[in-house]
Amino acid sequence: MIEFQNVSFSYEKGKSVIKGLSFSIADGEAVGLIGANGAGKSTVMKLLLGLLAGEGKILVDGLEVNRANLAAVRKKLGFVLQNSDNQMFMPTVYEDMIFAPLNYMVSREEAEQRVDRVLSQLGLDYLKHRYNHKISGGEKRMAAIATVLAMEPEAILMDEPTSALDPYNRRIVINTIRALPQTKLITSHDLDMILDTCERVILLSDGQIAADGPADEILRDRALLEANHMELPLSLCGRE
Fold it and tell me: What is this structure's pTM?
């Protein structure tokens, strides 16, 4: 579904942020992309979305990420931003959810059916006509996920989906992520959430892959995590 082939990127000449990165993510796989601040996680997401252009090749469902294919690539990808306020820009949840399908030339009838279907699946029917500035942070995060799902993407990218959430809303978001059938690539410093939602982890360090394997193995490896300026998930502290 997603493939990076020897991808490199520099914001400044001679200062590479991503260095010869190669990995692939299979259809339906849930992968956590972790690393300390500055490891290159956000840059990987921007490269995948075509917001940045580097060297090497990136493929999404067989399509190369380049200017000619950008619209088709982005139609396959849904991106849940870290800050929901940057994503929910229409007055109501309904208007946000229907905006992208209509702009992808989906008929209004089909777009409205998608909105109702997604809200029902997530148990969020009560939010449909609520004003975005009058719902809680947790509700807004769920509404942002619903907005992306209404686009019916083949893969979902998430940047820190549980940041700034209280424990109750954090658990709702985690359960929602786990139930999504799409391919998922999730960046987060919340390693407990990654452990709960992803079967595989890619650990980035200085723009390169330091480890790539089963989440349960990598996230239990105290020496590996500490060598890359990270700590064990809180749920595992005291057990290792």
Answer: 0.91
